[in-house]
Structure formats: C-alpha cells, structure tokens
C-alpha cells in the first residue's frame, strides 16, 4: 500500500508557467526548441511510458521487506541514476552557457561569402560557453586562469564554432605539445593538487623550460586572468583564420570579441576570497544579468590582413604565441552578439554542447597554424568518449538549424531514423540522394581555399617562430603602472608556491630577465633570489613598442551600467538617503541591494519597514562594485560597533572600491581610521552622488592601492 498518493498540481500553479518562447526572438528560430520537454501537468511515468502510482516506496514482501527484484520501477530509476555522470572535459571542465543571437551590422560580402555575415536583417542563433581551463567541473570561478570563450553560430549554412579564449595568444606553438602543457598545468598526479590554479611546480617547471610560453604566461599573470565578470571579458579567436569572398579572394583574419560594458578585473585578494565565499560568482553574475534583462553584448570584429601582406610583420601570422597590435591593424567591426536567454537545463545544454574549431561554413577557412591544425582533430575525437560515441551531433544543443543528410549511419545512441535503402554515394536506388552541391557564390557546397603548398615533409619548427620574448615585453611595456605591479605580484605569488628553487631561478633568469630586467629583479627580490644582471638572449624591438589597446586601463566603458552597489543599513537608517541613491543608480542602469545586520527587515528613522535583500554576511563586499552607507544616527551607531559591517567597509576600501558615507555615516571615517579620497566620498547630496557614480565608473580607485595595503581586512 502506498503511504502517499500523487497530488495533481493546483490549477493556479500552472498559470504563467514557462513556455518555449520567453519573448526572445531567437528561441523560435532554433530547431532545438522542439526538443525541450515540459512536465507541467503531466503524469509521472517510467521511461517506458507506464504511469507510476507510488514514487515513495519500493516493492516489498510486507511493509518491512525483503525488497523484490521484480520492482522494475525502482530498478529503472536507480539504474539511470547510477549512470548520470559523464566524463568532464579534459580541459575547460568548468563552464557556463547562454543562448543569444548574432547580427551582422552590414553586408560584408566583400570580405566573405558566409551568409550570416552578409545579411544584416537576420539574427543567427548562438550558444556561448565560457569556462576556466585548469579546474574540474566543481572548481571555483574566480581562480587565476585563462577563460574559454566558445561560440556556436547556428547559421543557415551549418554550424560555425569560434572556440576562443579571453587572451589573444597561447602557451605553445605546436599541437604536439598540448598534452605536455596540460599535464603540467593540471593538478599534480600524485596528490591531485592544486585545484584550479597554476601555482605549483609542474606548471612552472614546464613553462620555464619552454620559452615560447613566455608571452601567454605574462598574460596569465596579468589582471586578464582574474576577470571581474564573464560579461566584461574580451574574446579572441587566437589563431589566424581566412575569410573568403564569392570571387575566391582570401584575406587572413584574427577574430575579436569586445564587450560593450568594457573590460575590467577583480583584484587578487578579492578573487581569492570569492573563490571561497561564492564559488559560482561568475556564473551567478551571468545568470542574474540575463534574468534581469541586462543582456550581455559583444561586438565581433576582425583584423584583416590581405594575403600579400602575410610576411610583412616581424612575427609569423601562423605563430599562435603572437598577436597583431591593434595599432598596426585596426579591428573592423562585423556585428554584435547579444546573450538573452539562460539554458533550461545545465546538463542538456551547457554540459553536452560540443564545440570544434573544425566546424566552419563556406566563406571561412583555416590557416596553417600548427596549433590550430591539431585542434581540428582533437575536439571531435574527445567528444567520442565524453559524449559516448560519434552521434553527439544529434544532441539537440549540437544540431545545426538546417536539415542534414549523409550516408553516415548507426553507432551508439543514433536517434535519427534514416529512411531509404542507400547509405552510400553514388547510388541509383534512392534517386541518387543525398547529392553533392557544387561550390557557388551563395548556398554552394563547402570548398577549401586552394592554397598552393610546395615543401618537404619535415618535423620542424619554422625559424619565423623563434622570437619568444619581444611580444611579452610589448605586453609588459603596454601596461599601466598598477597593472605592472599586479604582474610582479602574481609572478611572486605563484613562484613563491613552487617548492624547487631551481625552477623559480630558471623562470627568473631565463624567462623574466629576457622580458624585462626590472620585472625579473623585483620578482627575484620577492623570492630572495639573486637579481639577474642581464637576459640570456638578444630581444628585438617591436613596432610599436607599446600597444595601449592591451591595457585594461584603456578599456572601461565610461558608465556604470549593470554595476552593483551594496547599501549598508541598520534600524534607524535614513530612508530618504536610500531612495535618493536608488533613484540615481536606476537612472544610470546600475543596481542596488539593501543589506542589514541580519536578513530581518530594518526600520527607518521615520518608522517604515524596509525588506533587506540579504544580511551583510550573506552578500559580502566582494560581491559588489561599490558600497553606500546612508545616515541615520541610530543606524550608524549600530554599524560602528558591528564587526561585520566594519570589516565590510575596510574590505571594500582594500579592494579599491568606491564608497560613499552619507549624513551621520561620516563618523565611520574616524572609527575605521580612513581618510576620504577620490573614491571614498563623504556626503549624500546630489554632488556627492555624482562623485560616487564617477568613482564607480573608474571601476577602482587605483591611487589608493599603496595605502590600502596597510588595511588589515
Ligand atoms: Fe582547446 N580543447 N585545445 N584550446 N579549448 C578543449 O575540447 C585542444 C586551445 C578551448 O566550452 C577540449 O570539447 C588542443 C586553444 C575552449 O566546450 C579538447 C589544443 C584555444 C574549450 C581541447 C587546444 C582553446 C576547449 C576539451 C592545442 C583558444 C572549451 C573538451 C592543439 C583558441 C570548449 C573539448 C567548451 C576545449 C583540445 C588549444 C580553447 C581536449 C589539442 C589555442 C574555449 O579537445
């Protein structure tokens, strides 16, 4: 006998439930929508379609058992559960995805025959997955690491995957070194530590022995490796690709994504604390932004290099450890991408999405970059074990929006029921279908660019790949003073975790000294090593010697759209000051959350009850861009003796955030022993709020950084 009967949901619970189209145009466009399954109003059934009457008790002989093997309902349920996990990605295991669309600004047919770049009226659905590289699926979001930035364009000519990173170069030049690099950076094999980071012996052993990694490693030691949010990251295709127009003219291109909210980072102490206080910090931010209608946007652009200019640079276009300074080749904007819908199901969409740099469409082609060439093979290969066979393209998230027919058949998990008898070509019994499509200006079959190649078959690295330090130096020289300090601190921190002194010394003397002697000396000093006197190789000058486009100091949006402000309040708070701030922020497109000593509502000085969004412990300062403390004598008295509130402010100060102290909150300056500065504003009137907003737009109060080091938060 069942102890509990299934209860039909009340009618009211069904009202307004999710439908496929949540007002997003792209939802309708995508063929995967027909695979979404909604259980609302449905009976619980087994996988064979049998209605289940009792989902609480297994089948037993008598109420106290024994249990019966014939209980097919329990066996089916537990068997399925036993196999719920699939292998996580070997790299980029932790990720988060979102749906959206891409729209071309204009007809770029002079550049490419790819349809999605020719029709400005068409919205091409996209699915994007952002990721960290080193850590497993459950690791922290804010660790120091490269971020993956993979975009699947579901175009009318098939899927195009732009599988990039948030940094424009890579650690190695040849795919054959990838397993070595990944084994070195991953947790060490004997104790599986550390999780999510590169601060350990095997990583630094490898990179100090492989000078081609120098450029990418300095990017990884820069603020780029601790992004503020996924929404504020730039993205890069890294390799040189080709775009080909209808006349067969090919240009080399480098792909770039630029976020409209600007590019900025966490500070290191904040990143470390967030890894514990909110492991999901980045995925939560992305999710909440999309749910709240702050749709993240990027502009896709390309640097275009005519074929005849291939050899006009002081580096090789095929070398993935080099970037093309934007000052040499500006970025040509192509269109914009908007992410406007969260997935319905993490596993079905974000976990099962299978990207591959080899997924291209007519009008796009590869270059001979030897790293890219290896990737073309690796991604499809890895899906075969990760997704259980060669039919992963049939999973809804991976299906193109165009129908596809070919002679491929069978294999594990085949879901298409192919009709007809001929799964071979040519055939005469199924009318010869499906048939080839010759290449054409539009809607033609894919045609590889007919590049002429005439050379010996060799295992060699081109001499043009031989310069490993000049662009690392260009990067360091292009940083603002505070960014340079962060790089010195990051090398010192990471190498400080390396147990073997000879590895630390090799990195300092044979890598850093060739990038910049000043950098090498500072790191040597922090590690207690003798300072190198000169580098080990001659490093040539780059032209330009500085690239301002590389510094995040030049990449802010100038506004405070979508920024988050914490309001600290206790009973007796000045309600009018809160309302004034909320109004000012709303006008700027920023958001505020009210935090109290606990999650209980606070009472304003004039007796109103205000619901709080969380307690100060529940939403710590690291989750916000700025902090506002309204006046109210009693509230300030309470906050002045509340260790959590005081720590909140000291921590925000230490992390160089804008802080405004309105009315009686001014008294907190003395309690905290802090002095007002460009970002620590005293006052709550219109002028003070304007200054507060201007300080938030600067993202951090960099000039405070030397003073903030003394703050014990
Ligand atoms: Fe990847 N990479 N990679 N990679 N990579 C994978 O593919 C690989 C490289 C990148 O969100 C794997 O499906 C090789 C560069 C991203 O699902 C694997 C080489 C760049 C993602 C693989 C590289 C990337 C991956 C693991 C050197 C930036 C996550 C699971 C030859 C341009 C995609 C998978 C997602 C994932 C191989 C180098 C970006 C093992 C062999 C360079 C964003 O196939």
UniProtKB/TrEMBL annotation:
Pfam families given for it? Catalase, Catalase-rel, Catalase_C
Domain of life of the source: Bacteria
The Catalase core domain sits at 45-433
PANTHER family, sorted: CATALASE, CATALASE-B
- Provide the species name: Pseudomonas gessardii
Write out the entry's keywords from A to Z: Heme, Hydrogen peroxide, Iron, Metal-binding, Oxidoreductase, Peroxidase
For this protein, the record's SMART domains field holds: Catalase
Reaction catalyzed: 2 H2O2 = O2 + 2 H2O
State the gene name recorded for this protein.
Answer: katE
The keyword Nucleotide-binding belongs to this UniProt entry's keyword annotation? no
Q: Which family does it belong to?
A: Belongs to the catalase family. HPII subfamily.
- Known role: Decomposes hydrogen peroxide into water and oxygen; serves to protect cells from the toxic effects of hydrogen peroxide.
Q: Which residues form a coiled coil?
A: none
Positions of the region Disordered? 1-24, 421-445
| Record-linked NCBIfam families | PRK11249.1
Which prosthetic group or cofactor does it need? heme
> Known EC number(s)?
1.11.1.6
Name of this chain's protein: Catalase
Q: Which SUPFAM superfamilies match?
A: Class I glutamine amidotransferase-like, Heme-dependent catalase-like
